[in-house]
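Office hours follow-up: a student asked to see two folded examples consecutively, so here they are.
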Amino acid sequence: MDVKSLVSHSLMVAWKDLMELFRNRMMLIMLVLMPLLMMTMAGFMFPSSTSISQVSVALVNEDEGSESATLIAVLEPMNSSTGMMTITSASSLDEVRSMIQAGEVEGGIIIASNFTSSLITGKQGVITIVTDQSNPQMSMLLQIALKEVLEQMGTWLAQQNVQGLNQTVNPSNSLAIVKPYSIQTEGAVLGDFSYFDFIAPGLMAMTVMMSVMTGLPAAISHERETGTLDGMMVAPINRLAIILGKTLAQTARGMLQGTLILALAVALFGVTIHGSILLIFALLLLGVFSFVGLGVVITSFAKDQETAMMVMMALMFPMMLLSGVFFPIQQMPWFMQAISKFLPLTYAATALRKVMVFGAGVPMITTELAVLIGFGVVMTAIAVPVFKRAMTR
């Protein structure tokens, strides 16, 4: 069979699968609705910044001196301007713990009973921050925010003390005496970024993977069960054309969903694309190529559609969690980081993230491209004979 016939037959098989998709209105609706729901939930569920607002905090002042009164007098207007906390009074540490356990507050600030006397005698005044360990992420954010606020207040009070001790000190220089270092941070790429800039490329790669690996059992196993695949097998077309046709149909599905996620990320959540759009679509196509061979192999070995879907799910969920789609790989234990290096989704998400966030070109993603191409070639080379053998059983 010549190349022209192979291409023609592949396109006919792909057209047949796509027409079945378009005739199934519910499936077509879910094909579009799934990226919408996923992006909306991810966009509003995950934090867009490290700031917090209107967090209920219980305040306990065990000190009766002037320094704690001054601290509270400064804290209240500062909190009113930022809207970070909703402050509730409490009488003791035990009451704060009870309020946190009852869900009445999310944290507490305890001013020690010797706060004023410690500051007067040249010692540090102790302020205890109480958090809810049942919510680790909020606990961490609350600790960081409260520490920053209290440190700023401490710096301000120290400036006032410096001015009181030495009237000749220029007010503008008192900060340099109290806090000699000024630490500034700057990103590798100019502009404001949120957590969604990190998660959007990974969601695109994950959606392409899910579209391919959940679509193939329906495209192969289901047709084999209903007998329609037997009709194609006895037709005068190459079996390679069947694989290529079904691959093209799944590619169209994956690209449609990937494009929807990209459009939603830009339109709804302000994600800025710093790299080439063409390179992004090329990476999505390469992601389809790397996953489709694996999908064909699994589907060919499975006896029915249900078994194929179970195996697909068993592979997809670990890849979703270990490939750095939702959480940075660097935060994982070392053995999970080692596993992530063998997952193609890791390289697809990393390559998309480099292009979209850093504006990377092909030279900066050569490793990811090599892994995706290599994985796709190996799995396709395995998939073709496995599929042919499965069809003759």
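And the second, which I mentioned at the end of office hours:
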Amino acid sequence: MGGNDNQSDITTPFDPSVSVDPFRDRPQPELAAVRGGEDLDWDKIEAYLRANLPEHLAIEGPFEVLQFPNGAANLTYMIRFGSRELVLRRPPFGTLAPGAHDMKREYKVLSRLWRKFDRAPRAYLFCDDAAIAGADFFVMERQRGDVVRGVIPDSMRDQPDVGKRLGHSLIEAMAQFHLLDADECGLSDLGRPDGFVARQVRGWKKRWDLVADPEHDEAMCAAHARLEKFVPSPQRVSFVHNDLKLDNCMFATGNPDRVVAFFDWDMTTLGDPLIDLGTLLNYWPDPSDGNVARGGHPGMEKMGLPSRAEVVALYADRTGLDVSLAPWYEAFAQWKTATVLEQLHYRWKVGDSSDPRMESISARVPGLVREALRLLDGLD
């Protein structure tokens, strides 16, 4: 999406034994040649885009394709016509989980939300003709900036309190997103907020059942039962991004105080905004973690980010919401992430994914479900 676009749906496993200096090590490349097995019919796509993209984009010049390689599910490509750079998104190959990778939803959100929320990139074109790219896809603007994956960007390294400022600006942007009026954004029909959280718990249990590893099934089912027992009542209806985390946003180059874009809008809906807070906490490292992996990217724990308690307090102050049940939302996010990791591994196992990272990505499932159960124990 941007110059350092991530577009990931889940982060890769964190190895606490790897020592990372977030001010020294280089981040992974943000653009690369298209990965083997993930090429599309580019001649057909080029012809379709030249004929259908809006005229104001002035599409001309030679066509070129690269891939944003750091995502783990949706396929995201940088396409270039001369000097005009755009981003194309389509679902991964193979069998998809029900309701997942919804490009039509993502296009709907991004074709409208950008007018009211400048962290939403503008979408230009949606195509549901599978003869073009093998599945639904859409095209949106490309934005540029810095994505933080456990490595402080070069443009920010000489600034004070970078980690704390990154955390504060992300929480501020998330709060602004949650305070938007869906009617004013033309998206009041985006979801069914009544019973949203309970449906999430039921729906993700069904997804687990489709890919369940027998070794972890008992613990996952125990966590599900406790989540159902303590389902909280929502305090307000807001937009819910459903995958907000540090590496799913982009910062202005050299400015840790400004988030310029969020990524991966395909699960956006209307519901309980604390679902997003739980997701953020799920990926947020804390000094109390010890050897328990939380950041998803080695180095995050050394960046000086605000603690999870500070994140919760900042969010509560900015939104005015009661965050006393934040542990439930955090536990749900841990349990949901375990399910997503198992889904990604299952796709690799049945041959639907050629990404070698997916062979071992489910190794984090036991730790995630243990942490979910620990958080839920505190609700009795």
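Two things to take away from it. The beta strands are 63-67, 75-81, 84-90, 123-127, 137-141, 238-240, 249-251, 259-262, 269-271. The first strand starts at residue 63 and ends at 67.
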